[in-house]
Each structure stands twice: as structure tokens, then as C-alpha cells.
Write a structure and sequence with these properties.
The strands form two sheets. The chain has a seven-stranded mixed sheet. The longest helix has 18 residues, at 245-262. The chain is α/β, with parallel strands linked by helices. The protein has one domain (2-278): Metallo-beta-lactamase, Chain A (4-Layer Sandwich), CATH 3.60.15.10. The protein contains six helices and 14 strands.
Length: 279
């Protein structure tokens, strides 16, 4: 299983020399199974470049799983070029906890006067489905879900293949329980012994004093959860729109000092556009 990041920024895409290392595109993760099946997690602005790559490969099927309906996780969807190709077969799944159907939410990204092409006018064969708590089989991969603790609700994913596990918990507030969200202990259990965990790490402790209840975690809380869950590698994710490369590096340094002090073998880094992990 290959995990590749096409965007790890939160809230809004950014550009500038201070964001070159970690990138400015918003959430999009590609997971490729050993069978060649493709799972795409969210359609932030990073999905545009992923779509360009897939235009050359022309996979028989594409599976898009949405975590929730906030704009930074949807805004790249209309620019995903496989949508406009008749040979594309795309399965789109979204959380049952969202306030509307996934088809209606996605179609809003392609509604005049905000976008010139409507969803019903595109050429790809698209199937809309709703995720449940049951395991979903995508080729050789198994996908399970968990409700996120986030404003307007959402869902996190655990993808397993050949005894390896990748957990994706973006937009998850570990110290505040939102409606339909779960307790911190539930996220520890869901992440237990994962080979790779990408978790929301939007805020510093000082920032969180003013943003409690906004649906995001302090990076140190993400670290504590990863340590308790016994994951092998933690990727700090959903970088604040104003967080420079230097500031993200400092967060990683803080985490690694704590890991060293605890005598843990946990590997910690910040997820950048272009990050790849083979599990």
C-alpha cells in the first residue's frame, strides 16, 4: 500500500516562499493498493495535480472518499480532469452524518454562477455512495470508518492491506466532543498499532485558547494520542493557513524532543505535498 500526499494545508490554499517545503494545497491523499486500486481521500486543491497524473494512467476505476463537506476538502473537485473523460469510472463516498446527500454537496461545487459546468453535464460515469460503519472492500484494501469530532460532522478512515494500516483523522478535535463525535479513547482504539497515522495538528497550545470548539487539535494532543495508540509513524496534518515552513519544523522538533524524552520509537514528521510512504 502506497500513501501519497497531494495537499496537507487546512482552511485555504496558500502560496509564497515561506510555504515551499510543506506546500500550499489543501487536503488530498492518494492511497494505492497492491492490486493497483486507487483511493482518494478528499478533494481539496491538491486533487488537481493528482487528476493530471491519472489522465496519463487512465485507471479503470477511481474511488473518492470524503471526510466532510467543508470547502477546503471540496474545492479542487471541479478541476479533477478525469471527471470530463467518458472512460472514467468514479465511485464517490461521503459520510452518512453529513447534513445533506454527498451528491448534492458535490454538485454545489459546480453550480452557476460559481462554475461554468454543472455536474450533470460531465462525461465520467459517477456513482454516489454513503459510507457506513461497515468495512468497505476496495480491491485488496479494507476501509473502516469512525465519526470525527468536528463542526458540521465528518468521518475518519482506517485503510488496511496485508497486515498494514493507515489511519487518516484530519479535522478531528481530540479535547472537545462535538455532536456525533466520540471520546478521545475511541480515537486511540481506532488508531491502535497503525503503521501510519495522519492526524489534525492545526493549532499550538496558545492558539487553541481562542479556537476551542472550532474542530481542530493542538499538535501536542495529536502526539499524545499517537503515543498512547502505539502507532509507528505520526504525520502532523492540516497545517494552519499561516503556518510557515519554519514554524512547522519547530512543531516537529518539539514533538521529537518529547518522543526522545519518553524513550519511544515513534517516528514523527509533518506531512508535506509530495510525502510518500510505502507500507
Amino acid at each position: 500500500m502506497l500513501v501519497r500526499c497531494w495537499g496537507s494545508r487546512g482552511s485555504i490554499s496558500v502560496s509564497g516562499k515561506e510555504y515551499l517545503k510543506y506546500g500550499g494545497d489543501t487536503t488530498c491523499i492518494e492511497v494505492v493498493g497492491s492490486s493497483g486500486d486507487i483511493i482518494i481521500l478528499d478533494a481539496g486543491t491538491g486533487i488537481r495535480r493528482l487528476g493530471n497524473k491519472l489522465m496519463n494512467k487512465k485507471p479503470p476505476e477511481i474511488n473518492i472518499f470524503f471526510t466532510h463537506s467543508h470547502w477546503d476538502h471540496l474545492s479542487g473537485f471541479p478541476f479533477f480532469k478525469p471527471l470530463y473523460m467518458g472512460h472514467s469510472h468514479i465511485h464517490i463516498r461521503g459520510p452518512r452524518t453529513t447534513q445533506d446527500s454527498i451528491m448534492k454537496i458535490v454538485s454545489h461545487t459546480m453550480t452557476p454562477p460559481y462554475f461554468p459546468v454543472e455536474l450533470e453535464d460531465i462525461h465520467a460515469d459517477i456513482e454516489f455512495l454513503t459510507t457506513t460503519q461497515d468495512t468497505i472492500e476496495i480491491g485488496s484494501m479494507q476501509v473502516t470508518t469512525i465519526p470525527l469530532s468536528h463542526t458540521n460532522k465528518g468521518v475518519g478512515y482506517r485503510i488496511e492491506e496485508d497486515g498494514k494500516a493507515f489511519v487518516f483523522l484530519t479535522d478531528n478535535e481530540l479535547t472537545h466532543k462535538h455532536p456525533d463525535g466520540l471520546e478521545r479513547s475511541d480515537y486511540v482504539k481506532f488508531s491502535k498499532d497503525a503503521d501510519l497515522l495522519f492526524h489534525d495538528a492545526e493549532y499550538s497550545p496558545m492558539e487553541y485558547e481562542h479556537t476551542r470548539g472550532w474542530g481542530h487539535s493542538v499538535f501536542l494532543d495529536a502526539l499524545d494520542m499517537a503515543l498512547e495508540a502505539g502507532v509507528k509513524e505520526l504525520g502532523l496534518f492540516h497545517h494552519n493557513q499561516d503556518r510557515t515552513d519554519q514554524a512547522i519544523d519547530a512543531m516537529v522538533d518539539d514533538c521529537n524532543l518529547i518522543i526522545k524524552d519518553k524513550g519511544s520509537d515513534l517516528i514523527c514528521s509533518a506531512v508535506a505535498t509530495g510525502t510518500e510512504r510505502e507500507l
